[in-house]
UniProtKB/TrEMBL annotation:
Pfam families linked to this entry: Ald_Xan_dh_C (PF01315), CO_deh_flav_C (PF03450), FAD_binding_5 (PF00941), MoCoBD_1 (PF02738), MoCoBD_2 (PF20256)
The keyword Oxidoreductase appears for this protein: yes
SMART domains to which the protein is assigned, alphabetical: Ald_Xan_dh_C (SM01008), CO_deh_flav_C (SM01092)
Protein name as catalogued: FAD-binding PCMH-type domain-containing protein
Phylogenetic lineage: Eukaryota, Metazoa, Chordata, Tunicata, Ascidiacea
Keywords noted in UniProt: Molybdenum, Oxidoreductase
Length: 1008
């Protein structure tokens, strides 16, 4: 309706029709921002509501109506409109009357007056009195596209001399459904002084009483008082505030991001080492690129969806699909009970996990049935209609602590591993500290959800098009479950929309679902999981709990450590394998001559975790850094210098028993210290912290060492040259996951064959052309694929060379040469698989520095600057490799600061199973200034083509962000005499950091 889209600008107000979108509202208010004290602030706050695409379609009226329907929805719009003195015009359908009202009712909380009514328009008055103060806040788990922990808006009219409050409105969102306006506080403030400790303290006490009973958690309570304090400070004369107090007024302002990328290339070996974008980046940017789900379905294709259990630790009583069978599009339902007799009910070739639970439920989110239907939407609707009932429901064991309490462990054949003699060393240690580190999970957050298309073939086999990092494991699983030979299973994968380890062993679950559905229907079937299924069924990063004890001398030189590592291996024993990798990861960047590690595999009722970018290495490298921080804190030393003193150097022996050679870590650390001016920045941070009571900065430097072994990966490569135009096609066994493997392969082929890059195409991975290739993971797939590729090129060159030689130095083009080869019956295809290189192991080193600013009153923070210096050997492609460094570091920022997987302690259900609750970092969570440098002139003699692994290692440096944040928290605690060492809050969310500050608003919030 045109009227509902109207925007009217009157002398004293702006009127917006009910269907005006939030984006249009922002635009209008900004256009007239100089006409009202409130307009600019409301518009700025609205920019923090949802995201641009949502604001472009969402209306302010829809938002209010949603709040009416769901009173616990933390609506920013309601808070803003109420504080901006807006009036809403409402049409009562029953009486035909139109009434104009403020947003909240007379109790300052309810919206019942909008129930069953139509919102017509809202009027925002032009409040242009310069004595009017208006401020709004939104504190979120991350910097954008999130609900608010607490939103607040304050409006105060001041007397002409600005030392008295004439009227005040205090509105909150997020403090529960029964509270919005702090009416008693508003009432008290009427006529009270600004610049008055008495006013502040009384107001805080009254507000505290008002919200004490409505807020659920201490954080929200503290935050509400903190936001009020911020507002009150803004009413005061800054010259009358105590030293550093005015730092509480403003919120953190994010400037435009910037950064540098520094690297060296070697034109002698171009296009190897040449910086260039991913060869498919253009079609990715334009949207033309095709993932499995983009390929056109065949006309007879069906779709299948899992029915998921919604409890953990129970038995299935009944699965009722009586309604499902009559729903449109229904084709078939498979359960554990009616599972085809001739197929093994396994989701992995190890035979230890069921494809569909038959009796026992291990975790909430476990598949109990597969619904097959004519369309994806129908299969989802039908799956939702299936009713599963349970018996013998037990309280789930979810965390490591639960497992310890219940003595729930997998049999563990991992022997303790040690070097030196820790027992003796501890006895002789000058100092010993001990502590605990509790690290949670992380969802892989690939953009392309788990997907597989499967169809039966004429010979009793299957053809699969699947998003997987591990074709071999799917092939083995299907061969095992269906009892057919491997040569009847054809698998292709063009590329993945991200994997990060999540599509390694767990993509077999998707592969089995689609193949099983194809088997029972004899039609092509697509399984395409939604986000909730991916998050709650497929398993994420393994949570770790570590208890450490570390012995050192008065200079902080570490001599011994012992550590108990508990891995939450969830509901299937396959995750125990990750713990085996702990030994590889354990020694981090620091040398310690006497060490003992014991690993414990906890059996719990969460989905079996799976490898996730730098599994074990991320946690164990972080442990090294956390322990160093603890030691430095104990000794009262600067951790940055102390860390350097403990770094590895050539000639030392690692925990794995390797002699350290070509060690770059000290070199990197020193370079970073100098090039980033760490010492002088430490001084600047110190002086900032002295001057600002309510904003603090923290700076930390963290080194990492990622141990690489080329012992298990091998990838077949097929290179063919077409005789009629000399173009080259490559199919290899690595999987393009966005890590740029195809780009590197094309560069290496161009260099080794001596042809232009444009002549080369890399086609999809197939288990026929690249049989027996191992999974893509562990960061060395690009390297090892290129090693095979070099072998292919050498074979081809050895066949081409004699023909070229027979041309007696005659200048011929590549095309002519290849045509001649063809004419002379030269085989223009070559395949080669580089053997594993068991003797070749090396370490990838990196060091990063993060500087953060922290708002003590809210817990909000931003990374002002991050510098990373990384050793990548001779980078095959610095653009791609720096992309990996930046991406891994930002994924680490998510792990350390915003991403948290939480389970319902009664049902075991994942609570954070959508983007509403689960918050990976966004564009405004990355460092404001982000500088990455690849170490120059550092060829790796132990790697393929003198390069180094890069996909996972840089995430290990991201711990510096969490430590820098902890430093900022330490600074504010020190201001209040709280000098005790405290553990790093993990993840260091806005809420956890604020809680760690141990603020007492009623006594800590002062004017002097
Ligand atoms: C990912 C995401 C993030 C979000 N983040 C935030 C956030 O941070 N802060 C925040 O405040 N909101 C947030 N929202 C909510 C968003 O702003 C609301 O979805 C939006 O305002 C709803 O508006 P709509 O026009 O789409 O309503 P619709 O979905 O069209 O309607 C919602 C309800 O309102 C009713 N309705 C619509 N118009 C009227 C009318 N004129 N009179 C009576 N009833 C009406 C509809 O019948 C329906 O019942 C978020 C939403 C999403 C999806």
């Amino acid at each position: 309706m045109e009227e509902l889209r109207a925007i009217n600008n009157y002398d004293d107000c702006i009127e917006l029709g009910a269907s005006v979108t939030l984006s249009e509202m922002i635009k209008t208010l900004l256009k007239h921002s100089d006409e009202s004290v409130t307009f600019g602030a409301v518009a700025s706050h609205l920019k923090k509501v949802a995201s641009v695409p949502i604001r472009n379609v969402a209306s302010w009226a829809g938002n209010i109506a949603m709040k009416c329907q769901h009173p616990d929805f933390p609506s920013d719009v309601c808070v803003l409109l109420e504080a901006a003195k807006a009036k809403v015009k409402v049409y009562d359908v029953c009486t035909g009357r139109i009434v104009t009202q403020s947003v909240f009712g007379s109790d300052g909380a309810t919206l019942s007056h909008f129930n069953d009514k139509v919102l017509l328009s809202v009027t925002l008055p032009k409040l242009d009195d310069i004595k009017l103060k208006f401020k709004t806040f939104k504190v979120m788990p991350r910097s954008q596209n999130s609900y608010a922990y607490v939103a607040a808006a304050f409006r105060a009219g001041l007397a002409s001399d600005e030392d008295r409050i004439e009227n005040c409105v205090v509105v909150f969102g997020g403090l529960g459904s029964a509270f919005a306006r702090a009416q008693q506080t508003e009432c008290y403030l009427k006529g009270k002084q600004t610049n008055s400790m008495e006013t502040l303290k009384n107001a805080l006490n009254i507000l505290s009483d008002e919200i004490k009973n409505v807020t659920l958690e201490k954080y929200e309570y503290n935050l509400a008082l903190g936001l009020f304090y911020k507002f009150y400070l803004s009413l005061c004369d800054p010259s009358k505030l105590g030293y550093g107090i005015s730092s509480g007024i403003g919120s953190l302002v994010r400037p435009l991001s910037k950064g540098t990328q520094t690297y060296e290339t070697d034109p002698e070996i171009y296009p190897i080492s040449q910086a260039m974008s991913n060869i498919s980046s253009d079609i990715q940017a334009s949207g033309e690129v095709q993932y499995v789900g983009d390929e056109t379905p065949t006309t007879d294709e069906l779709f299948c969806t899992f029915v998921l259990s919604d409890v953990a630790n129970a038995e299935i009583k009944n699965i009722d699909y009586s309604i499902a069978k009559d729903m449109p599009g229904f084709v078939k339902i498979i359960t554990g009970e009616n599972f085809p007799m001739e197929v093994k009910n396994h989701s992995h070739y190890d035979g230890l996990s069921e494809c569909l639970a038959k009796y026992c439920i291990q975790f909430a989110g476990q598949p109990v049935a597969i619904v097959i239907a004519e369309s994806r939407e129908q299969s989802k609707q039908i799956a939702e209609s299936v009713k599963v009932t349970y018996k013998n429901v037990q309280k789930p064991v979810l965390s490591v602590q639960d497992a310890i309490e219940n003595n729930s462990f997998y049999p563990n054949n991992l022997k303790p591993f040690q070097m030196g003699n820790p027992d003796v060393a501890f006895k002789n240690a000058e100092h010993v500290v001990s502590g605990e580190v509790d690290l949670g999970s992380q969802y892989h957050f690939y953009m392309e959800n788990q997907i597989c298309r499967a169809e039966c073939t004429e010979n009793g086999g299957f053809k699969l098009n699947v998003a997987t990092q591990a074709q071999l494991w799917i092939q083995k699983t299907i061969s095992h479950s269906f009892g057919i030979p491997s040569n009847k299973i054809e698998i292709t994968t063009k590329r993945l929309g991200g994997g990060f380890g999540g599509k390694l062993c767990n993509s077999t679950i998707a592969g089995m679902a689609a193949t099983l559905a194809a088997f029972v229907t004899r039609r092509p079937v697509c399984f395409h999981a939604d986000l909730k299924t991916c998050m709650s069924t497929f398993g994420s990063r393994m949570p770790y709990f570590m208890k450490y004890k570390i012995g050192f001398n008065a200079n902080g030189i570490v001599n011994c450590l012992s550590c108990d590592v508990y891995g939450n291996c969830g509901s299937a024993p396959r995750a125990v394998r990750e713990l085996a990798g702990v030994q590889r990861a354990a020694d981090s960047a620091y040398f310690c001559p006497n060490q003992l590690y014991k690993c414990y595999a906890c059996k719990t009722n969460i989905p079996a975790p799976t490898w996730c970018r730098a599994p074990g290495s991320l946690q164990l490298n972080a442990l090294g850094d956390i322990m160093m921080e603890h030691v430095a804190s104990y000794l009262g030393q600067d951790p940055i210098g102390m860390k350097f003193a403990n770094l590895f150097k050539n000639g030392q022996i690692t925990l794995q028993g390797n002699l350290v050679t070509h060690c770059q870590i000290r070199n990197l650390y020193q370079n970073l210290m100098e090039s980033c001016g760490i010492r002088s920045r430490q001084e600047t941070v110190k002086s900032f912290n002295e001057k600002n009571r309510w904003k603090k900065r923290g700076l930390s430097v963290s080194p990492s060492k990622f141990n690489v072994k080329l012992t298990w990966q091998k990838y077949a490569v097929l290179v063919s040259i077409y005789a009629f135009d000399g173009s080259v096609v490559i199919s290899h066994g690595g999987i393009e996951c966005g890590q740029g493997i195809n780009t590197k392969v094309a560069q290496v082929a161009a260099c080794k064959l001596g042809v232009p890059l444009e002549l080369i195409t890399v086609q999809r991975t197939s288990n026929i052309s690249a049989a027996n290739s191992t999974s893509t993971g562990g960061s060395t797939s690009s390297e090892m694929t290129c090693a095979s590729l070099v072998g292919c090129c050498e074979i081809l060159n050895s066949r081409i060379e004699p023909i070229k030689a027979r041309m007696n130095g005659k200048e011929v083009t590549w095309k002519e040469l290849i045509a001649k080869c063809y004419a002379e019956d030269v085989d223009l295809s070559a395949t080669y698989t580089s053997p594993t290189l068991p003797s070749q192991s090396y370490a990838t080193y990196g060091v990063a520095c993060a500087e953060v600013e922290y708002d003590v009153l809210t817990g909000e923070n931003q990374i002002l600057r991050a510098d990373i210096m990384f050793d990548c050997g001779i980078s095959m492609n610095p653009s791609v490799d720096i992309g990996q460094v930046e991406g891994a570091f930002v994924m680490g920022i998510g792990f350390w600061t915003t991403e948290e997987m939480k389970y319902d302690t009664n049902t075991g259900q994942l609570v954070t199973d959508s983007t509403w609750e689960y918050k990976p970092p966004t564009t405004k969570d990355i460092p404001v200034e982000f500088n990455v440098e690849l170490l120059k002139n550092a060829p790796n003699p132990l790697g393929v083509l003198r390069t180094k692994a890069i996909g996972e290692p840089p995430i290990c440096t991201s711990i510096c962000v969490a430590i820098a944040l902890k430093r900022a928290v330490e600074e504010t605690k020190r201001d209040r005499g709280l000098n005790e060492y405290f553990p790093l809050p993990t993840p260091a969310t806005v809420k956890a950091l604020h809680n760690a500050c141990e603020l007492d608003p009623l006594s800590d919030f002062n004017l002097s």
